[in-house]
Amino acid sequence: MTMQEYVTKIAFVMGLPTNHNVESQQIEMAVTIAFDEVKRYIRTPVEKTVPFRHRLDLVALDIKTNRVLNVLAARPRVGLLTGSYNGGSIFEMAAMASMQGNYMGRGALNIEPIMYQLANAQVRNTLSTDFQWRYDTINQVIYCTHQAPLPATVTVRYVPEFVDVAEIPSPTWQDFILRMATAYYKLSLGRSRSKYRVEGSNVTLDGEALVAEANNELDTMRQELESKRSKLVVVN
Protein backbone atom coordinates (compact mmCIF):
# COMPACT_ATOMS: atom_id res chain seq x y z
CA MET A 1 0.00 0.00 0.00
CA THR A 2 1.46 3.34 -1.08
CA MET A 3 1.52 6.56 0.89
CA GLN A 4 -1.24 8.05 -1.28
CA GLU A 5 -3.47 5.04 -0.64
CA TYR A 6 -3.05 5.52 3.11
CA VAL A 7 -3.84 9.22 2.77
CA THR A 8 -6.95 8.55 0.67
CA LYS A 9 -8.35 5.98 3.11
CA ILE A 10 -7.70 8.09 6.21
CA ALA A 11 -9.16 11.19 4.55
CA PHE A 12 -12.29 9.24 3.67
CA VAL A 13 -12.69 7.94 7.23
CA MET A 14 -12.18 11.41 8.67
CA GLY A 15 -14.54 13.04 6.14
CA LEU A 16 -11.87 15.20 4.54
CA PRO A 17 -11.28 16.09 0.87
CA THR A 18 -8.61 14.02 -0.84
CA ASN A 19 -6.96 16.81 -2.84
CA HIS A 20 -3.39 17.96 -2.16
CA ASN A 21 -3.83 20.43 0.69
CA VAL A 22 -2.70 21.00 4.25
CA GLU A 23 -4.82 18.10 5.50
CA SER A 24 -3.17 15.59 3.15
CA GLN A 25 0.28 16.72 4.27
CA GLN A 26 -0.73 16.26 7.90
CA ILE A 27 -2.05 12.79 7.11
CA GLU A 28 1.26 11.88 5.44
CA MET A 29 3.07 12.93 8.60
CA ALA A 30 0.69 10.78 10.67
CA VAL A 31 1.39 7.79 8.38
CA THR A 32 5.14 8.36 8.69
CA ILE A 33 4.97 8.47 12.50
CA ALA A 34 2.81 5.34 12.58
CA PHE A 35 5.16 3.55 10.16
CA ASP A 36 8.20 4.38 12.30
CA GLU A 37 6.46 3.00 15.39
CA VAL A 38 4.95 -0.14 13.87
CA LYS A 39 8.06 -1.31 12.03
CA ARG A 40 9.89 -1.70 15.36
CA TYR A 41 7.54 -4.61 16.07
CA ILE A 42 8.00 -6.34 12.69
CA ARG A 43 10.34 -9.28 13.24
CA THR A 44 9.33 -11.59 10.42
CA PRO A 45 12.62 -12.91 9.02
CA VAL A 46 13.48 -13.38 5.37
CA GLU A 47 16.30 -15.27 3.68
CA LYS A 48 18.58 -14.38 0.81
CA THR A 49 21.18 -16.64 -0.81
CA VAL A 50 24.32 -14.85 -2.00
CA PRO A 51 27.72 -15.92 -3.34
CA PHE A 52 30.17 -16.88 -0.62
CA ARG A 53 32.73 -14.25 0.33
CA HIS A 54 34.89 -13.93 3.42
CA ARG A 55 33.49 -10.40 3.69
CA LEU A 56 29.82 -9.96 2.78
CA ASP A 57 28.95 -6.31 2.16
CA LEU A 58 25.25 -6.10 2.98
CA VAL A 59 24.79 -2.73 1.29
CA ALA A 60 26.27 -4.04 -1.96
CA LEU A 61 24.09 -7.16 -1.66
CA ASP A 62 20.97 -5.00 -1.19
CA ILE A 63 20.28 -6.45 2.27
CA LYS A 64 18.77 -3.69 4.42
CA THR A 65 18.77 -4.83 8.03
CA ASN A 66 19.97 -4.16 11.54
CA ARG A 67 19.34 -7.72 12.74
CA VAL A 68 21.09 -10.68 11.17
CA LEU A 69 19.74 -13.87 12.73
CA ASN A 70 21.85 -16.53 11.06
CA VAL A 71 24.15 -17.28 8.16
CA LEU A 72 24.07 -20.81 6.73
CA ALA A 73 26.58 -22.35 4.38
CA ALA A 74 25.14 -24.17 1.40
CA ARG A 75 27.49 -27.14 1.79
CA PRO A 76 26.16 -29.58 4.41
CA ARG A 77 28.39 -29.95 7.42
CA VAL A 78 27.89 -33.72 7.73
CA GLY A 79 29.15 -34.45 4.23
CA LEU A 80 32.27 -36.58 3.77
CA LEU A 81 34.60 -37.25 0.88
CA THR A 82 35.87 -40.71 0.05
CA GLY A 83 39.46 -39.53 0.36
CA SER A 84 39.10 -37.11 3.28
CA TYR A 85 36.42 -35.99 5.71
CA ASN A 86 36.29 -32.33 4.69
CA GLY A 87 33.29 -32.53 2.38
CA GLY A 88 31.31 -34.61 -0.07
CA SER A 89 28.73 -37.33 0.52
CA ILE A 90 28.71 -40.25 2.94
CA PHE A 91 26.56 -42.11 0.42
CA GLU A 92 29.39 -41.92 -2.10
CA MET A 93 31.61 -43.59 0.47
CA ALA A 94 29.07 -46.33 1.05
CA ALA A 95 28.81 -46.95 -2.69
CA MET A 96 32.60 -47.15 -3.01
CA ALA A 97 32.86 -49.51 -0.07
CA SER A 98 30.18 -51.73 -1.63
CA MET A 99 31.94 -51.71 -4.99
CA GLN A 100 35.22 -52.56 -3.28
CA GLY A 101 33.62 -55.50 -1.49
CA ASN A 102 32.07 -56.84 -4.71
CA TYR A 103 35.32 -56.37 -6.60
CA MET A 104 37.20 -58.45 -4.03
CA GLY A 105 34.64 -61.21 -4.25
CA ARG A 106 32.94 -60.57 -0.91
CA GLY A 107 29.18 -60.34 -0.70
CA ALA A 108 29.10 -58.37 2.57
CA LEU A 109 29.47 -54.58 2.66
CA ASN A 110 32.89 -53.41 3.77
CA ILE A 111 31.79 -51.01 6.51
CA GLU A 112 35.23 -50.33 7.97
CA PRO A 113 36.14 -47.35 5.70
CA ILE A 114 32.78 -45.73 6.45
CA MET A 115 33.19 -46.07 10.21
CA TYR A 116 36.75 -44.76 9.98
CA GLN A 117 35.66 -41.63 8.13
CA LEU A 118 32.71 -41.05 10.43
CA ALA A 119 34.95 -41.31 13.49
CA ASN A 120 37.40 -38.80 12.02
CA ALA A 121 34.57 -36.43 11.12
CA GLN A 122 33.10 -36.70 14.61
CA VAL A 123 36.43 -35.78 16.18
CA ARG A 124 36.90 -32.90 13.76
CA ASN A 125 33.39 -31.52 14.33
CA THR A 126 33.76 -31.82 18.10
CA LEU A 127 37.01 -29.87 18.20
CA SER A 128 36.18 -27.24 15.58
CA THR A 129 33.41 -25.86 13.40
CA ASP A 130 33.23 -25.84 9.63
CA PHE A 131 31.62 -22.43 9.35
CA GLN A 132 31.73 -19.33 11.52
CA TRP A 133 30.42 -15.81 10.95
CA ARG A 134 30.41 -12.46 12.71
CA TYR A 135 28.12 -9.49 12.01
CA ASP A 136 29.56 -5.96 12.07
CA THR A 137 26.51 -3.77 12.67
CA ILE A 138 28.36 -0.45 12.25
CA ASN A 139 29.86 -1.21 8.85
CA GLN A 140 27.02 -3.51 7.72
CA VAL A 141 29.40 -6.35 6.94
CA ILE A 142 29.37 -10.08 7.73
CA TYR A 143 32.75 -11.76 8.10
CA CYS A 144 32.76 -15.49 7.26
CA THR A 145 35.30 -18.28 7.70
CA HIS A 146 34.86 -21.77 6.29
CA GLN A 147 37.04 -24.85 6.11
CA ALA A 148 37.93 -26.13 2.66
CA PRO A 149 36.22 -26.80 0.38
CA LEU A 150 34.53 -23.40 0.39
CA PRO A 151 30.78 -23.29 -0.35
CA ALA A 152 29.60 -21.59 -3.51
CA THR A 153 26.84 -19.71 -1.69
CA VAL A 154 25.61 -18.82 1.78
CA THR A 155 22.09 -17.99 2.95
CA VAL A 156 21.61 -14.92 5.16
CA ARG A 157 18.56 -15.01 7.45
CA TYR A 158 17.69 -11.51 8.65
CA VAL A 159 14.91 -9.16 9.71
CA PRO A 160 14.50 -6.56 6.94
CA GLU A 161 14.72 -2.87 7.76
CA PHE A 162 11.93 -1.09 5.87
CA VAL A 163 12.62 2.47 4.72
CA ASP A 164 9.38 3.18 2.87
CA VAL A 165 5.81 2.49 3.92
CA ALA A 166 5.11 0.91 0.51
CA GLU A 167 7.60 -1.87 1.30
CA ILE A 168 5.34 -3.41 3.97
CA PRO A 169 3.91 -6.54 2.26
CA SER A 170 1.76 -8.00 5.04
CA PRO A 171 -1.92 -6.95 5.21
CA THR A 172 -1.76 -7.34 9.00
CA TRP A 173 0.97 -4.74 9.40
CA GLN A 174 -0.67 -2.50 6.80
CA ASP A 175 -3.83 -2.56 8.91
CA PHE A 176 -1.84 -1.61 12.02
CA ILE A 177 -0.23 1.31 10.19
CA LEU A 178 -3.60 2.49 8.85
CA ARG A 179 -5.26 2.32 12.28
CA MET A 180 -2.35 3.96 14.07
CA ALA A 181 -1.99 6.71 11.44
CA THR A 182 -5.71 7.47 11.76
CA ALA A 183 -5.33 7.70 15.54
CA TYR A 184 -2.31 10.01 15.23
CA TYR A 185 -4.19 12.25 12.83
CA LYS A 186 -7.16 12.38 15.23
CA LEU A 187 -4.73 13.33 17.99
CA SER A 188 -3.21 16.15 15.95
CA LEU A 189 -6.58 17.38 14.73
CA GLY A 190 -8.09 17.21 18.21
CA ARG A 191 -5.30 19.23 19.76
CA SER A 192 -5.54 21.91 17.09
CA ARG A 193 -9.32 22.13 17.55
CA SER A 194 -9.08 22.39 21.33
CA LYS A 195 -6.31 24.98 21.29
CA TYR A 196 -8.63 27.99 21.31
CA ARG A 197 -12.02 28.59 22.88
CA VAL A 198 -14.59 31.26 21.90
CA GLU A 199 -16.60 32.17 24.96
CA GLY A 200 -20.32 32.59 24.40
CA SER A 201 -20.28 30.96 20.95
CA ASN A 202 -23.01 28.51 20.05
CA VAL A 203 -20.51 26.54 17.94
CA THR A 204 -18.35 23.90 19.64
CA LEU A 205 -15.58 21.70 18.26
CA ASP A 206 -14.90 18.08 19.13
CA GLY A 207 -11.20 18.57 19.89
CA GLU A 208 -11.20 17.08 23.38
CA ALA A 209 -13.28 14.11 22.25
CA LEU A 210 -10.86 13.45 19.35
CA VAL A 211 -7.84 13.57 21.68
CA ALA A 212 -9.44 11.13 24.13
CA GLU A 213 -10.51 8.80 21.32
CA ALA A 214 -7.06 8.88 19.71
CA ASN A 215 -5.22 8.17 22.99
CA ASN A 216 -7.53 5.25 23.71
CA GLU A 217 -6.98 3.77 20.23
CA LEU A 218 -3.20 4.19 20.49
CA ASP A 219 -3.11 2.46 23.88
CA THR A 220 -5.19 -0.45 22.54
CA MET A 221 -2.97 -0.92 19.49
CA ARG A 222 0.23 -0.77 21.54
CA GLN A 223 -1.09 -3.48 23.83
CA GLU A 224 -1.88 -5.63 20.78
CA LEU A 225 1.61 -5.05 19.39
CA GLU A 226 3.26 -5.89 22.71
CA SER A 227 1.31 -9.14 22.88
CA LYS A 228 2.58 -10.05 19.40
CA ARG A 229 6.15 -9.25 20.45
CA SER A 230 5.96 -11.43 23.58
CA LYS A 231 4.77 -14.45 21.57
CA LEU A 232 7.57 -14.22 19.03
CA VAL A 233 10.47 -16.65 19.42
CA VAL A 234 13.42 -16.34 17.06
CA VAL A 235 15.41 -19.56 16.64
CA ASN A 236 18.89 -19.17 15.21
What distance lies between the first and last C-alpha atoms, to the nearest angstrom? 31 Å
Number of strands: 6
Averaging pLDDT over every residue, what do you get?
A: 79
Secondary-structure content class: alpha+beta
Beta-strand fraction estimate:
15-25%
Rg: 29 Å
Q: Give the proportion of residues in helices.
A: 40-55%
Which strand order spans the largest sheet, edge to edge or round the barrel?
1-6-3
Q: How many separate structural domains?
A: 3
Q: What is the 3D form?
A: elongated
What's the helix count? 6
| Secondary-structure element string | HHEEEHHEEEHH
Kindly list the characteristics that best describe this protein.
single chain, 236 residues, alpha+beta, 3 domains, three-stranded antiparallel beta sheet, 6 helices, 6 strands, elongated, disordered C terminus
